[in-house]
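Checklist before submission:
- one chain only
- standard amino acids only
- sequence pasted in full

Submission:
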Amino acid sequence: MKLLAAFLSSFIILHSSFAAEQRPNIILIYTDDHGHADLGIYGVMKDVKTPHLDALARSGVVATNGYSTAPQCVPSRGGLMTGKFQGRFNLDNNGSALDGFNKETTIATRLQNAGYVTAQFGKWHLGPQNEITRHGFRHVFSQHGGQKFAANITLDGKDRPMSDLPPTEYHLDGCSKAAASIIERYKDQPFFLYVAYRGPHTPLDAPQSYMDRFPGEMPERRRAALAMLSAIDDGVGLITSTLKKHNLTEKTLIFFIGDNGAPLKIHKIDSPLIGDAGGWDGSLNTPLNGEKGMLAEGGMSTPFLIAWPGTIPGGQTYEQPVTALDVAATAAATNKIEVKPGDLDGVNLLPHLTGENKAAPHDALYWRWMAQSAIRKGNWKLLRGGEREYLYDLATDREEKHNLAAKHPEIATRLRTKLKTWADGLNPAGMALGPMAATWNDYFDHYLEGKTIANVPGKAAKGEEEAGIQGWLARNGTLSVKDGTLLLTSDKGKQAPFITRSQLKLKGPLTASLTIKTNTPGAGSIAWRMDSDKDFLPANRVAFKISAESDWQTHEVQLPTHGKVIHLRVHLPSGSIEIRQLELRDAAGKPVLSLKP
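Returned file contents:
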């Protein structure tokens, strides 16, 4: 009997040890421009309905101080995928080249090498969709709108050659169904799913069936955002129910994170849903201050949930600061994947969430984006924007309303020194990459200085029209008519100017002809946005060289775009540039858009 008891005891110990060694499935759900307020579990807004996400939160952890790595899409995704702060490989903003990212090892690659089946769904935004597999994803279903998208699986999870696939479902629903199909297919193997919903990011395109869930008086943009979030919530419910169906709930680690705060455009104008893809997305950051494009809390602190029932105790509210960089580090540590020193900037959160480690996961969190940088150490946060500097005690002022820099100069100095040391190790080095652009100066004035901003930066105020010439507007400069020619003059101390025109419907391919005169040489470029794009993509930009000449010079620029162009930007060097003509012609050589004095 003693021998039998000893055997059974040994068996139980070995079985428990084996179970503890089992590698969890990992699901990373990423939302787009999703404001901090918009989860039902947070109890901030009464109109939001997210029952499945609320259930996920109750089964795990609500990280109330969870942060993204940037207040903008591309860099935040680059940091998330690599687990390394994106400023280390020169991916600082949406316009950055992807050369550095392409050399990095993603968490998908690490997990794939460890034997995981890996799959990506939805928005990628880190290069061509048909090249997603080079970053560690075996399966791809990159639907992020109503247009064709790259995929090497069907909606029901079956293999197909990588090519464009026409949508048969609303994009948020399609991603959810494809993800559930992959769970069904690989229920007996460890899998890593990256479900990147393009919602509630504009264009706000929820079907009427989702809109009807939110009757009553409210801004239409708010209704549309709630509808898109409801579709996402349904998708999370489908994913979690599929896990439950196959007894995978306690074998699956789930992260739910937003990529950055909601874009409010200061005034939250309820502009038409169609025709203003760059307006307020209807989501809210309440009660946090600031919005997308700012390192203020409203731009950086996003919905952040973590669940692994049976391993991480449920019903937790975790208040220590954590970051999206921690996803890769946690996944690697859970699978005992060897990582070279300096390869990951996050930490393994599991010991902190299980209670094994009571200390804060991070000594400090750091950020840099364009002309802004910030550090949070404990409850103290130092935020810089150009030459401006703010110090906040987030323990008593999470809304960042009271700048304590003058009251506590010694704390500001200590944090600034740490921030500078960290920023000097980035590529390129420095706490700022240039001066503050006019837009962000306005945002800082409004949110952090309490000044009244009459217009939304870059948009017309309600009922008014922004000054322009023939529909073209100047940014970082002024556009005027002088002596029979157009004159673009850059603003002193700001980034190079550009002229822009939106609300277009131009069928590509296009040829741009630009005749100018300038004494300032430099780089010019033309960028465009398609009706399927929510932002200007790095790939949709053609550069050309401008020489300093006393005579007129004409540049013919081919725009290899197919589909419908809705927004154009013409970037020119700083200084003063005379413009005699800008003309765009279609494939038949017919002029379709022009700018003349």
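Reviewer check: The chain has three domains: 22-361, 368-447, 473-595.
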